[in-house]
Sequence to fold (102 residues):
Amino acid sequence: LAQSTPDSIWLSTGVRAIDHCVETLCAIVGVTPESDDLAQKALGRLVPGLLQCKQNRANDGAYLQCQLGSVDAMAACTSGSVELGASHGIGHQVSYIHILYF
Fold:
């Protein structure tokens, strides 16, 4: 299923997960050592995984790393009570507009 997802959707969704990691690492309120560790672990999976997916759509391992990285990214955001910043809120609005009009 992951490999049949168009690049435009797969890669943009992966970049959104990277955004979650960066916001978690930049947050001031509600962060924990666990949230930072999860965000760093997610980045370590997502960045190389997305690059490898773009280079070779048949790379099962790269898709797996992206999926595991996205799980870690969400766990980082939801561990404790991390207060996310403007990028998170803007992303929700842009995603909603995209769904409505495109």
